[in-house]
Amino acid sequence: MKTLVLAVLNLLLLLTLPAAAFGQQSLISDPEIYEKKHFQAQCKAAEFADGFVIRQDINNDGLIDAVVNEGELTCDGQKGPQCNDDGCTYNFYLQVAEGGYFMIATAQIYGYDFVQRFGNMVLAMKMHPRFCDRTEGDPCIVTARVRGTKFVTISKK
């Protein structure tokens, strides 16, 4: 009987834990404060340029979202310590109507432009040429639209 009870408890744990693992991430009040605290804890001296956080509506819902460019961080005298040949880390946060933000994507890119295509604002991200199946040359331009909480690639060139 004791074995049966343990087996049932284990089965219940297996059924409930995956649901908890896929649960919604916690909202943060402000990505700028969140990211700056993170780097102030990581670096002895952290400096943030004006372009560290750009606030704009990236998913066309009328709410102002945030994009963090880690290339605009100077950590212990090193500018953009996570930057490499693939570019710098950019973190994309969406604001929700209930208040707060959540991160929807992290990308290693050279930069991006926010442009209008077919009536919608889209991100034209400059990336390493290998993302367009090239080994060299001009950066690849990956155009993506944010639909709901996902980046949807429109084109690569």
UniProtKB/TrEMBL annotation:
Q: Does the keyword Signal apply?
A: yes
UniProt signal peptide: 1-21
| Alphabetized UniProt keyword annotations | Signal
For this entry, the protein name equals Uncharacterized protein
Q: Give the organism the record lists.
A: Rhizobium phaseoli
Source organism phylogeny: Bacteria, Pseudomonadati, Pseudomonadota, Alphaproteobacteria, Hyphomicrobiales
